[in-house]
Amino acid sequence: MFLILIKLAWRNILRNKRRTIIASIAISIGLAALIFGDAFMIGMMDNLIKTATDSFIGDAQIHRQEFRDTREVSMTIQELDEVGANLAKEANVRYFTRRTFSTGMIASSANRSAINLIGVQPSTEKFLSQIDDAITEGVFFQKTNEHDIVIGSKLAEILEVELGDKAVVTVVQAKSGDYFQDWFRVSGIYYFADAAMNSGMAFVRLKKAQQMLAIGNNVHEIAIKFTSTEYGQDKQVPFWETYSQHGNEALSWTEILPQLPKVFAMSEYSKYIMGIVLFGVVIFGIINTLFMSLYERMFEFGVLRAVGTRSFGMARIILFEAGALAIVSIILGAILGFVLTTIFANVGIDYTGNEMMGVTVQEFIYPVLTIEQFTVYPLAVFIFTIIAGLYPAWHVAKMSPVDAMRRSF
Amino acid sequence: MEQIQKTDVIVTESVMKVYDADGIPVNALNGVDLTIQSGEFTAIVGPSGSGKTTFLNIISGLDAPTEGKVWLSGKVLSEMGGNELSDFRRDNIGFIFQAYNLIPVLTVEENVEYIMLLAGVPKTERHDRVVAMLETVGLKDVEDRLPTQLSGGQQQRVAIARAMVSEPAIILADEPTANLDSKTGADLLEMMRRLNDETGMTFIFSTHDPMVMESAKRLITLRDGKVDTDETK
Ligand SMILES: Nc1ncnc2c1ncn2[C@@H]1O[C@H](COP(=O)(O)OP(=O)(O)OP(=O)(O)O)[C@@H](O)[C@H]1O
Ligand SMILES: [Mg+2]
After folding, report:
1. Residue A349 lies inside a defined structural domain of this protein
2. What are phi and psi of A286, to 5 degrees?
3. Whole-angstrom Cα distance, residue A88 to residue A327?
């Protein structure tokens, strides 16, 4: 029986090829748009996560608990040696680097500007941030000159300094509250699309920063890169608890940048809205198509009913037809979605310089294909198409054979 | 020789049918009392609009009478539920319509076996019966053709094969020859008559065709929804 239903459905949708093609193109464009939209969102999220975590934040950070709120220079990480030794043994930690933070003032012969002075370990910092990649002039700490300073191009412009020029940095020391001043020579200039990073930061060697701030060997932050980004998003792993002892706190990037997960939740939501709107349009298309073909074949349906097909059997004929239409459309849509997404996954979509939720996009967005796009979405399209077929199917089921045959003349 | 027991296949009792034509009631049948016995070869004739089609629709359970009762093979049609009635039609009535009997996307074989599929007859049996039935109606090697690849007369023969293949109690045909030329119509009629003689299956058909009336064993004339004359030859 199923075989004859499949034959009926398949041959009937091939009967009016043009109509079938138009309907399935509409459905397949819907599916392709959904696949592409999803791939784009994933690409955008990856991009934002990567931008946020790769450019400076890392996958996780450790601070003294009070540090993030107070930004007090004295709030350094407790038991630093133990923490460092443990991190070195963690299987999931690929890199980590130490940093100091302090606000301060940088002055050149021409101008002055407030900055965040960051003390870094160049050898490991380069794995955690992209400052080294963003250098446009000079280098990111190559020799051992403790008076090297690396600044953004915008800051260089404000200070009217060039590579090799001198600048004086003033900071406030930890315990005494005394001002401390030292001179530096611009050894590297970087360019970042992010305005705050480009104009408001200056990097010096960790040792020098510690000495200026009079905090001994202590640091304010350890930035960590895990072997996988997912590990950093998993709050179940023991890592967070282990490193949130001794008054320290270990935070994942999702907590450091809480806007980002919110964007993702929002984009999930907008994906559903988009999906529902698309399917709404598609459903009316399908209902319309099925009804058109139904009215053309009234007499046939009358005959089928007369010779003994039950009303459910009649409905099933329409549902199989909806299913056949869905399958054709899904194949078409999946191919279309795959081709479209693959093209853009290779070419990339230029969103650079646009700021999204506090993160400035630094690289092209590359849409990402997933299995889900070719399983869950087509299944959803199939189910929606069948649901759309319910109305015409119900119509056929309750139709009287006499009316059906009369009305067709 | 065994005497064939005649039984009442169809009994109608004061069947009335009132249609509603845009608010105006149309009395298509005005109290029809008829009994049709097994093995009959009966033509229902009468002027256009006299109620022939309506009568056939009501005795086959395709339509319900406004008043009155219909027994088919001893069962009251109006007492049957939807699926029961569908199954009853499938098993007890063979239909031949004036034209477009066949599902155009199905082959001849698929058209003929459709009812057996509904009834759950196994595949090999279906095939054997289709081939045998097609041979009976004088068609050979057309199983795999589509209806559009057949002539009008051939299509009607396939319709007869479909109607008869599951050996129903009666065959109902509403103007089966109306769309055929007279020669083809005559051949078809002769064949139905032969099948009636050979199998004892009951045939009831409506017609305007004098030739059909000629070969009928019983002629019922309807006029204004009533039995006008009823003669058995
Ligand atoms: N569904 C309907 N709605 C309204 N009136 C109807 C309907 N079906 C039939 N009639 C009317 O009932 C009467 C009987 O119609 P019916 O089709 O039974 O006649 P008929 O004898 O088969 O005619 P013909 O020889 O033209 O086929 C006619 O007046 C017709 O107009
Ligand atoms: Mg008629």
Report:
1. yes
2. -70, -45
3. 54
Distance (Å) from the C-alpha of residue B71 to the closest C-alpha of chain A? 18
CA distance B233 to chain A (A): 31
In a domain, A60, yes or no: no
Pick the last residue of a domain from A246, A281, A296: A246
Give contacts of A321 with chain B, Cβ < 8 Å.
Answer: none
Using only C-alpha atoms, chain B has a radius of gyration, in whole angstroms, of: 18
User: What's the CA-to-centroid distance between B53 and ligand 2, angstroms?
Assistant: 4
**Residue A251 in domain:** no
The predicted complex's ipTM stands at 0.92
Domains of chain B, residue spans: 39-50+81-232
Collect all residues of chain A within an 8 Å Cβ-Cβ radius of residue B117: 1, 4
Total number of domains in chain A: 2
Q: In angstroms, what is the span from residue B53 Cα to ligand 1's centroid?
A: 7
* B63: amino acid identity, one letter: D
Q: What is the DSSP letter of A365?
A: B
- List, as ranges, residues 97-126 from A with C-beta within 8 Å of B: none
Q: Do A12 and B100 touch (CB under 8 A)?
A: no
Point out the ligand 1 atom lying closest to the alpha carbon of residue A402: 1
CB contact under 8 A, A8 and B83: no
Question: How far apart (Å, rounded) are the C-alpha atoms in residues A391 and A386?
Answer: 10
A276 CA to chain B: closest CA distance, Å?
A: 35
Nearest CA in chain B to A2: B117
One domain, residues A103 and A219: yes
- Which residue's structure tokens are 């202590």? A218
Residue A59 within any structural domain of the chain:
no
Taking only the tens of pLDDT, chain B with its 233 residues reads 344 456 888 999 999 999 988 889 999 999 999 999 999 999 999 999 999 999 999 999 999 999 999 999 888 888 888 899 999 999 999 999 988 889 999 999 999 999 999 999 999 999 999 999 999 888 888 889 999 999 998 999 999 999 999 889 899 999 888 888 888 888 888 888 998 998 889 999 999 888 888 888 999 999 999 999 998 88
One domain, residues A148 and A218: yes
Report angle CA A195, A257, A218 to the nearest 5 degrees: 85
What domain range includes position A202? 66-246
The alpha helices in chain B, defined as continuous H runs, are 52-59, 82-92, 108-119, 123-136, 152-164, 182-199, 210-215
> What CATH superfamily is the domain B39-50+81-232?
P-loop containing nucleotide triphosphate hydrolases (3.40.50.300)
Partner residue opposite A310 with nearest CB, options B57, B86, B95: B86
B110 and A4: CB-CB below 8 Å? yes
